[in-house]
Amino acid sequence: GHDAHTAYLLGLADALIDLKDQLSGTLKIIHQHAEEMPPGGAQQIMASGALNDVDEIYGIHVVPVAGPEVIGFNKGNAFAGSSTFTLTIKGLGGHAASPHKTHDALVAGTNFVNTLQTIVSRRIDPSEMGVITVGAFEAPGGANVIQDKVTIKGTARYQNDDLEQFMYEEIEKVAQSVAVGFDITYDLDYQFGYPVLYNHPTQTNHVVDILSASKGDYFEQLVEIPAVSGSEDFAYYLKEIPGTFYIVGCKPEQLASPYMNHHPKFEVNEDALIVAAKSLGEIAINRLTATD
């Protein structure tokens, strides 16, 4: 996915350089580092001052939920905010034949994972979006050994920034209850990550108007999509600069059920690179003319 984003943007930059003398205003193209490593590179780029004179900002993500003939947009809170956590549980190990002489970290850990699910189902308003996912449960050992240490890693996601602190506090409460119930100790390393990505309605409407009036035949459908539970540090740009972040389909033609982004077998239909470059090029040129 990241290679695709870099490739389409390089292609667009090359085309825009050829048109430079015909353009009014200034275009800045961002090749950003560390998008997948919170706190991400967007904050550093904003702090550098390189974008202080930017009036509007636009970005794209390729996703294989549709073919490259489809462009998707949404307004308002569009991508989830996210935080990550690592919980280390420390108990008292021992022989599997004598569990009463131990404080089983593994059983405590499974209880923590199960109870986490009640935060979304019982502690958050059903009309709000919330997701807590445990992605790693590490308790290496033998079949006849009760473990004294378990490490659990996961993420929390939300479409409302007010839930960021709330979900942290609830996860901490679950860890505390497990500590009391199973007589273990724990360490919770909680990292607040990317904020909710907010697509500004005015700039999103600009994109819709420009692409709806496009005379190009490089895409077929422009569709409004629901909010996305994935997270993007492009959100930091949009907290300071009006703009929008939209989707270009990249589903390979030969795959009925494509692998999603981050899967080791993820593939990109390279026609999406053309759609991304042309659509963003149209938007950039139109907005330069309109804001001149």
From TrEMBL:
UniProt entry keywords in alphabetical sequence: Hydrolase
SUPFAM superfamilies: Bacterial exopeptidase dimerisation domain, Zn-dependent exopeptidases
Pfam family, one: Peptidase_M20
Hydrolase keyword on record: yes
GO MF annotations, alphabetized: N-acetyldiaminopimelate deacetylase activity
This protein's record includes keyword Hydrolase: yes
InterPro entries, sorted: Amidohydrolase, Bact_exopeptidase_dim_dom, Peptidase_M20
Any one biological process term the GO annotation gives: diaminopimelate biosynthetic process
PANTHER family to which the protein is assigned, alphabetical: METALLOPEPTIDASE, PUTATIVE (AFU_ORTHOLOGUE AFUA_6G09600)-RELATED, PEPTIDASE M20 FAMILY MEMBER
Protein name as annotated: Amidohydrolase
Source species: Staphylococcus gallinarum
